Amino acid sequence: FQGRVDTSSLLLIVDRRDDPVTPLLNQWTYQAMVHELLGIRNNRVDLRKSPGVPKELHEVVLSTADSFYESNLYKNFGEIGGEIRKLVDEYQSHTKSHEKLETIAQMKAFVEQYPEFKAKSASVSKHVTVVSELSRLVESQALLDVSELEQELACQPASDTMARVKAILGNEQVTSLDRTRLLLLAMLRYDMAPAEAIEQLGRYDVPQELQMLVPLLKRYAGSGTQWRVSDIFGTKGASGLLKRITGQLKDVENIYTQHQPLLAQTLDAILKGKVRDQVYPFIDAPLRDRPTDVI
Fold it and tell me: Cα(53)–Cα(118) distance, rounded to whole angstroms?
């Protein structure tokens, strides 16, 4: 912030309480899924509790020093399968090129390339193992069904969405955490009374520490609180009315990632010069021109 101040730059200060929806949604990009489902600590993933994982892969390192990981951090899970296939094919092609070592020159070339060959082998084993474990958890925890309902609650509920939420709560595959998150989203969407949500969770032996999140979220970011000033579901005003009449956008390619964080909408409004001063008041006089940079 030293030096000349560019008047086309804008510092945006946001309150995390303004968007309680985004943190409640299951994520479907590679890095986010590993964080959410397996956990990463100091770039290490512990797979000791995962069935069928060999001892040498009980702990794997995922960092940007890994070219495959760096290239696929933010790709959707559906794309990762294809990238894993390419990685395996590349490794197999590399392996076949060294099946016959007949001359001294060929042997010398193999020895020189052996570190790269060994690294590629380790990378293939690591990522195939991680992706396989993610796939197992997606299936065993019914995450596709859970995520579909989460996205409906966050974007555009159907007439039977709440009935389907109540039905999936009884699915033994669904974890206590996902049951809680679904009901927290429902509470925000339908302005449900905390007691009703807690009653629903209690039926399925959800731990008390998770049940206590219900009144906390209601106080933290429920409708009517002084902290939540934005329209988190986009249901107000003319655009909200249009959405309710016509439904959600028809060209959504992936129903599991259709939700856009409130911050993305806010940044878009700022760059279009449409942000409301009542929601984001300026400390000094408003900019005359639309900002070219938002910090």
Answer: 19
Would you say the C-alpha torsion 151, 152, 154, 155 has a positive or negative sign?
Answer: positive
CA angle, residues 224, 228, 229, in degrees to nearest 5: 95
pTM for the structure as a whole: 0.80
Greatest pairwise CA separation for the chain in angstroms: 79
| AA identity, residue 275 | V
Mind listing the pLDDT tens digit for each residue in 143-196? Answer: 999 999 999 999 988 889 999 999 999 999 999 999 999 999 999 998 888 999
d(C-alpha 169, C-alpha 200), whole Å: 8
Instruction: Indicate the burial class of 145 (C-beta count within 10 angstroms; 0-12, 13-18, 19 or more).
Output: middle
Cβ proximity of 150 and 25 under 8 Å: yes
The count of residues in the chain is: 295
Residue 161 CA to residue 152 CA, distance in Å, equals 7
Q: What share of the chain is helix, strand, coil (3-state, %, to 5)?
A: 55, 5, 40
pLDDT, tens only, 186-245: 999 988 889 999 999 999 999 999 999 999 988 887 766 665 556 666 655 444 433 433
The answer to whether 185 and 177 have CB atoms below 8 angstroms apart is no
Give the whole-angstrom CA distance, residue 26 versus residue 150. 8
Six token digits for residue 134: 């993610």
CA neighbor of 157 nearest in space, from 228, 243, 215, 224? 243
